[in-house]
Design brief:
Elements: H1 22-46, H2 60-112, H3 116-135, H4 139-162, H5 169-185, H6 188-213, H7 219-248, H8 252-277, E1 281-283, E2 287-291, H9 292-312, H10 318-346, H11 361-365, H12 368-387
Antiparallel strand pairs: 1-2
Helix pairs in contact: 3-4, 3-8, 4-5, 4-7, 5-6, 5-7, 6-7, 7-8, 7-12, 8-9, 8-10, 8-12, 9-10, 10-12
Length: 388
């Protein structure tokens, strides 16, 4: 039997498919591409969502580090700029204040002849040494007084020699030192004996030196040299020794501290009032820069200082403090004007320039030396009142 037409041969095998046209082949290719795209989209939908711009965490420091460092550098630069600006502004203000202070100091110096800065520093340093020696170990004040006296004698003698006087420096220094030391360690009557012997030593030494010199000096000039030599001992060592005598008394260190404080108050009050209000000269031929307004300021200062020191340091009544202040003011003013007369007679402004802003040592002792004698007298006057 022959196979029926349209069935594959061999009982189950199919015949080969008929060839596709061009249109059918193109549609088949499109269907295949669509299926591939669909499969890829399905695979992508099952994968975890990862943003396209996501970067692994491990790479973040590497990428953000330069940005942070650049930000820190900018902040640091801004801070340094602010600090530099603040520093420049501060330096400008300091320079301006310094210029104003120096200008004011120059005006004060031109008016009073003192360098305010140096005068203040030296005054504070000397005051600290003086107060410390009186409060803690009053024997140290003897050393302080001895050094001041020897320097004062040296200044005075040198100024007199420059003015044409014959002064024997070594005997002056030796005699002055003996007078000061004897005021503390010897009895009062024996101290007076030492003073007379010291003056006699200076006078005899000058006469013997003149006899051997044969320089043709007149008798009047020799007599003037002798008198001036004795005056040096009375003016500097003897008056200073009275301060040491007061120191040796019971509680004398407080009296010494009190009268020196009153002298300083008088000087400070006169200085401040004279700077602010001074118009009327007090003694124009002797000291042109001292004014009555300054003297008024000194009166107020010594009364206040005398009352406070008298009550709280010396144990006196308020009226005794006023007496102390007024008396010390009188002796301090007389000593100041007296030394000004001596310097004017010698043709000098200061005894020396060892203490900038003050002049010489004797220029600082001019008010203290005569005030020591007044303070010793006031001590003998008011001590019985304190005891009673």
């Amino acid at each position: 039997m022959s196979d029926a037409p349209g069935e594959p041969a061999g009982g189950g095998s199919s015949l080969p498919a008929a060839p596709l046209t061009r249109r059918e082949a193109a549609e088949a290719r499109r269907d295949a591409d669509t299926e591939v795209v669909a499969e890829n989209e399905g695979d992508a939908s099952t994968a975890p969502d990862v943003p396209a711009f996501a970067v692994p965490a491990a790479s973040e420091p590497a990428d953000s580090g330069p940005v942070v460092q650049s930000h820190l550098r900018a902040k640091r630069s801004e801070f340094e700029t602010q600090v530099a600006h603040a520093r420049a502004e501060f330096e400008t203000q300091v320079a301006h204040a310094r210029a104003e202070f120096e200008e004011a100091n120059e005006r004060i110096k031109a008016r009073t002849g003192r360098d305010l800065i140096l005068a203040t520093l030296i005054g504070v340093a000397a005051g600290a040494v003086l107060v410390g020696s009186l409060i803690f170990v009053k024997q140290l004040f003897v050393v302080f007084a001895l050094a001041a006296v020897l320097l004062g004698v040296f200044e005075f003698s040198r100024a007199l020699v420059a003015a044409g006087r014959k002064i024997d420096l070594v005997p002056q220094l030796v005699a002055g030192g003996i007078i000061v030391v004897s005021g503390y360690f010897l009895e009062l009557w024996l101290h007076w004996v030492v003073v007379f012997v010291a003056i006699a030593l200076v006078v005899v030494w000058r006469l013997l030196a003149q006899m051997t010199a044969r320089d043709g000096r007149t008798y009047g000039a020799v007599l003037g040299d002798v008198l001036i030599g004795g005056f040096i001992q009375l003016y500097v060592p003897f008056l200073a020794s009275l301060c040491v005598v007061l120191l040796a008394q019971d509680g004398g260190e407080w009296w010494v501290l009190a009268f020196i404080a009153v002298v300083v108050a008088a000087d400070t009050g006169a200085y401040a009032a004279g700077i602010m209000f001074g118009k009327h000269p007090m003694a124009p031929r002797i000291s042109p820069k001292k004014t009555w307004e300054g003297f008024g300021g000194a009166v107020v200062a010594v009364i206040i200082a005398g009352v406070l020191l008298g009550i709280f340091m010396l144990g006196l009544s308020w009226w005794a403090g006023i007496v102390i202040g007024v008396v010390i003011l009188g002796t301090a003013t007389a000593g100041d004007l007296g030394e000004s007369m001596i310097k004017r007679d010698l043709g000098i402004k200061d005894m020396s320039s060892w203490l900038p802003g003050h002049g010489g040592v004797l220029d600082r002792l001019d008010s203290i030396l005569p005030s020591a004698a007044a303070a010793l007298a006031l001590y003998y006057l008011f001590t019985p009142l304190v005891a009673s």
